[in-house]
Design brief:
5-stranded mixed sheet; 3-stranded parallel sheet; 8 helices
């Protein structure tokens, strides 16, 4: 699952893990470079694989493989069982998870991480409203464990998903409180909400706040005048 970045070490690591078996299919959770850019490298190293993902037409052509289209609810054969595609947009519009119903295991891509939150990049088609809906959808599955693309296994996913939702709602409340007191630019709002954050991390923080602001704007709870945001 996922093609990685295609570094020589990764490609040879896949070969070692296969231990002589064929690589037949690679399922990509979403078209961010750390998940999809290795596809051509895997295609060049192995003769048989197919590559499958949910379409993101504006992005998919940048990697020269023939993508097989996946849709929400599709079944993917995996050994003697089946994984089910669950469309979970927000982090990216094409983001999917794979659900193994028998063990209630979710291969969760970048939906959640064990020890931190996930950036919802408004500047790269991230969508906060869609992300919150995706968290709710996965929560309704009641998974027993989640296997993210980065970091350790999430052993208590229901607890984590609920904490994610509380965190996002609290951030939304904080934004509205600040805008209710004073209109602010995105940069000023970022500095106020993330005091002392290292400068290198500020662009990602601002991108995530922008995703919140756009959601609040759609909800009629915030508005903007050029680059200044205020309560709606």
């Amino acid at each position: 699952m996922d093609a990685g970045t295609g570094t020589p070490a990764h490609v040879e690591g896949v070969a070692a893990a296969l231990d002589g078996a064929s690589l037949t299919r690679v399922v990509v959770t979403h078209n961010h470079s750390d998940h999809a850019s290795g596809a051509p490298h895997l295609a060049g190293r192995f003769s048989t694989p197919s590559f499958a993902k949910m379409p993101w037409p504006e992005k998919d052509a940048r990697y020269a493989v023939a993508w097989q289209e996946l849709g929400d609810g599709d079944g993917i054969a995996a050994g003697d069982t089946t994984l089910r595609v669950v469309h979970t947009p927000g982090h990216a519009p094409d983001h999917i998870c794979l659900w193994h119903e028998e063990t209630r295991t979710l291969f969760s891509g970048d939906l959640a991480l064990a020890h931190t939150t996930v950036v919802i990049p408004a500047s790269a088609h991230g969508d906060m409203a869609a992300y919150l809906d995706s968290l709710e959808r996965v929560l309704a599955l009641n998974p027993s464990q989640m296997l993210p693309a980065h970091g350790p296994v999430i052993e208590e996913p229901v607890m984590l998903l609920r904490a994610y939702l509380r965190h996002r709602r609290a951030r939304e409340f904080e934004i509205l409180q600040r805008l209710g007191r004073e209109a602010a630019t995105l940069a000023a709002l970022t500095a106020a909400i993330y005091p002392g954050l290292p400068e290198a991390l500020l662009p990602s923080a601002a991108d995530g706040l922008l995703a919140h602001l756009i959601k609040l704007e759609r909800d009629g709870r915030a508005r903007r005048d050029e680059d200044v945001w205020m309560a709606g």
